[in-house]
Each structure stands twice: as C-alpha cells, then as structure tokens.
Amino acid sequence: MRDNPISPTIDFDLDGVQHGYLRLPYSRNDSAWGSIQIPITQVKNGSGPCALFTGANHGDEYEGPLALVELATDLKAEDVSGTVLIIPFMNHPAFLKGVRVSPIDDLNMNRTFPGQPDGTPTQKIADYFQRTLLPMADVVLDFHSGGKTLDFIPFAASHALDDPEQQARCRAARDAFNAPFSIEMREIDALGMYDDAVETQGKTFVTTEIGGGGTATPASAQIARKGVRNLLIHTGILQGEPIIAPSRMLSQEDDGCFHFTNHNGMVDFAVTLGQTVAKGDLIARIWDMHHTGIEPRKFYALMDGILTARHHPGLVQSGDCLAVLATEITN
Ligand code: ZN
User: What distance in angstroms lies between residue 66's CA and the mean position of ligand 1's atoms?
Assistant: First the structure.
C-alpha cells in the first residue's frame, strides 16, 4: 500500500512537550499548494505506555475538544511517565465548520475506517490513524457527544469483544474514566468505525457520549476533564489519586433499544433523559407540521429501560433515531 501523504511537524521520538500539526496537502481553488493542518500535542517523558486521545471525530461535539485543548495546554513532560498524544480536532475541517461530517468530501470520519492513503481527505486522515498513530498507542480514548441532532445522558462506553482479556482491559479503562453512567454499548452501525479499527488492533479503548445538542455545559465539560485525568492515572502515565464517584451501569442487549420515527413532524417528548420507562410507555408524540386538528402519532417504549439518548432539535424526519433505551444493571 502506498505511503500516507500526511507529515507530522513534531518528532514522535523526542521527549518533552511539542505542539504541532499533522499536515495533509490539500490543493484547492483558494489555495493551490494549501494543506489541512490538524493540531497535535505530544507530551513525552521516557519509555512507558502511550495514550492517544481524540476529540471532534465528529465536528459538532465539544466536550472532548474542550477537555483536550486544556490538557494540551497544561500537561508538562515532568508530570508524565510515557507518552500522551492529544488530537482535540480529529476531523479538523468538520470542526472548523461546526458540522458532523467533513464539508470537503461529505464523509463521516467514524464510518471511513480503515481509510485510504490515496482517497479523499477524510479517508487519508483515517488511514494515518489506522497505520501510523494507532500502532504507537496502548490506550485510546475517543470522545463523542450527541452533536447537533442527538442528546445523551453522560456515559463512558466499552464494547462486547471476542477476547475476554481485552474486554476486561477496556471495561477497567471505561470504569476509570468514571462518567456518571458506564455502558457496554451497542452500535447502530459499526462498519467503518474508528472504534472497531482500534479494538481490532488489540488496544484498550474507551469511547464516550457526553451530552449533545451541539454545545457543552459546565457539567458535561467537567465530566470530560475528570475522565481524561482519571484515565491517565489508570494507565500509570500520570501520578495522583483518581476522583471516583458512583457510576450507574447500563447495558443494551439487542436492537430493541433503538426507536426510530417513521413520520415527519414536531416532537413532543413524554420522558426526559435519564428517566425510567416500562415497555409500552409513551415516549413521544409527533405532531403534524401542516395542519391543525390532527391527532399526533404516538411512539411507545419497545422495552423497559432508561432513556439514554433522544433526538435533539424540535423537528424530526422519517427515519430519524428518536430515542435510545438501555437497561440498568443493579447488582
Ligand atoms: Zn460522535
């Protein structure tokens, strides 16, 4: 396979703090010899584990970027044993526009793996992670939130994996992150995800969904900041005491957790995030947008559970994911 065209402006072998870019040549109308410059910080002190932290895999999710720009500013080489690679804006073109997918090639970074060195910009970035950055990492954290069209209760997630040893490592890292909720997450569409690329390489992987609606709150940003610090302590890269609070454990056994609307309209939720529902309970009504005097369509819970995610803006389209439930594990 051909070489990836991205070149880093930092030297991965050097100790110390380096702020730089992953530079991807990108020739276009407004810049003939232009480039995409993805900011990267490496904090390295000797040999030891390597943590790779990413935000803005989707460009409209902010808790990860907020926690990671602060970490990149504050972390000192003498604080760490090993290496921390911090990339707050993984899909930088999407982040600059405040949108989920790249405005250049319309590709969703998290459906593009393993990427392609001679593909579009998003495919090239994915290939650089796949073949250059991931092999360097022991522990990988990829931040997500709901973006502009979903909102979540704040959780850290691991996945069910074939290798029990790797699954235990991922669960332990997820629990060290210590979000208010922890989940063994079911993916709606796993093909091409960064998650799968990381796990296939045997790495310890944690992902999150922390809030949404296209912005962060003081509380949601703080969950991300605490999680990053806790995870660095868990890996042995940072010294100190983790801050551990109670975390409610969730699971998703089958696709019955996902609720889709097959109508356009104005959504009228009957339950709020974090609320418990029983199978058959009303989740939301969808009101007609063009006529008065029409009864709303009603959507009911397909299982017992906690409302884990909901559609965010007030209008929905047929096919939208309206709500996601999860089961609380209480033992
Ligand atoms: Zn996301």
Answer: 14
Q: For residue 264, is pLDDT > 90?
A: yes
15 CA distance to ligand 1 middle (Å): 32
Distance 147 CA to ligand 1 centre (A): 7
What is the share, in percent, of the chain residues with pLDDT greater than 90?
Answer: 96
Q: Write the CATH number of the domain with boundaries 255-329.
A: 2.40.50.100
CB within 8 A of 84, min separation 6: which ones? 41, 42, 43, 44, 50, 51, 53, 71, 75, 232, 237
300: which residues sit within 8 A by CB, 6+ positions away? Answer: 280, 281, 282, 283
Distance 100 CA to ligand 1 centre (A): 7
Quick one: CATH architecture of 7-251? 3-Layer(aba) Sandwich (3.40)
Decide: 80 and 46 in contact? Cβ < 8 Å. Answer: no
Checking if the pLDDT of 179 tops 90, the result is: yes
How many whole angstroms from 324 Cα to the centroid of ligand 1?
15
CA 58 to ligand 1 center in whole angstroms: 5
Q: Quote the pTM value.
A: 0.97
CB-based neighbours (< 5 A) of ligand 1, an ion: 58, 144
pLDDT in tens, 26-84: 999 999 999 999 999 999 999 999 999 999 999 999 999 999 999 999 999 999 999 99
